[in-house]
Predict the structure of DUF4166 domain-containing protein.
Amino acid sequence: MISIYERALGEDYSRLHPELQKKFGLTSEARTSIICTGVMEEIWGGKVYMKPFLHLGAQKNITFSERGRNIPFTLENYAYRNAQGQECMAWIRKFQFDTVRNFDATMIYSSKKKGIVDYLGIDQDFVTDIDISVLENGGIRLLSGPLTFSKKGLNLKIPAVFSGTAEAIEWYDEENECFHIHVEVTNGSFGTVFGYKGTFTIEYVTCEDPPAYAKPRREAVVTAV
């Protein structure tokens, strides 16, 4: 069995740094989870008038309004099959401000779209396609597409003025034996919604079943995957 990311990248997967191949090669059959621990050198973005939106997003584990430097964080990855039998990868990010803030997502591979689909937050109300590519240094780049609001059978494209694009870049630093991460979510009208950059290390842990908090309140399914 190969991971959803190897399916998406095809032959290009072999161009990833071996440490990234291992990280993005997680499958439900492996019964292994990934625990990343590190520090965000900086978390930035979000103008004052955007705070109501950011507070609302925090309730759904999509955004948060806190900003700062040298913020401890963890990232947990769990590969599992959902109720529809789809192979999923849960991304549970926790930022240790005075209060813990989450930025969560669940990704699947869509055979119909021949790529990764990302369901954002704990409710999976917002969905986006992910363009995935390999960098020259063996790193990986994930770039989101337009957002769709999905709830109770309703699928509504979010107008560009209210939508955003997220770019995430990861690469492995052999000299310091750590991973680097750089993420930025931007809006064409309002600029940076939020961004963060930092470093982390990884621990691979035996896991028979993901914890309940790693699964969304609503398991979404892509039609004709």
In short: The first strand starts at residue 32 and ends at 44. The first helix runs from residue 4 to 9. Residues 13 and 21 are 7 Å apart (CA to CA). Residues 4-214 form a domain with the Lipocalin fold (CATH 2.40.128).
